[in-house]
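Quick check before the chapter quiz. The format below is the same one you will see on the exam, so make sure you can read both the input and the output lines.
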Amino acid sequence: MLLVLFAGASAMTDGFTGWTSESLRRQRIAAHPVPVPIATLVDAQGQSFSLDTAIHRGGKVVLIDFIYTRCNTVCSALGGEFEQLQHDIVARGLRDKVSLLSISFDPAHDDPAALAAYAQRMHADPVIWRFATTHDAKQLPLLLQTFGIVVIPDGYGGWTHNAAIHIVGTDGKLSRILDVDEFRRALAIAAAGTGAGA
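Here is the expected output.
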């Protein structure tokens, strides 16, 4: 009986390497990166672009977070970390290797004007840090599912959601997911050139 329980626990935790579904998902992504979905986004300048095509053509590792502009909790922390990342990208001369993308999951409110105002509050340099949302809300579920973002209405017109830094390599694949406070590690991985570093 103990042997059966041990084998079951080992299988459920991927050999005892992960104890939550999120940690297991992150380990699976790191071991087997997944392509970003085909999604049309619109940015703070009102320009439409395809997420996967933009990554391939840009030739940069992209650090992605998910936000909504009216958020005063998790998104503020993410914004602060991305603002520091932007500073570090400039300081380390990585403009040609790494870019930042904040995607709003609230397209009904976060139109280009709202995204532009938010970007200004974050002191975002549009060459480094781009803000966008889905052009078609029907594409949002697949986008959130691929990146593992869970969004729940908070009952007050806002949202409760998880937060992380998602590293998408130059091959257009989501290769790593790190906690928000690991932004320096995320940049080190991105600076390695592929987004798949240790």
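If your answer matched, good. The chain is about 40% helix and 25% strand.
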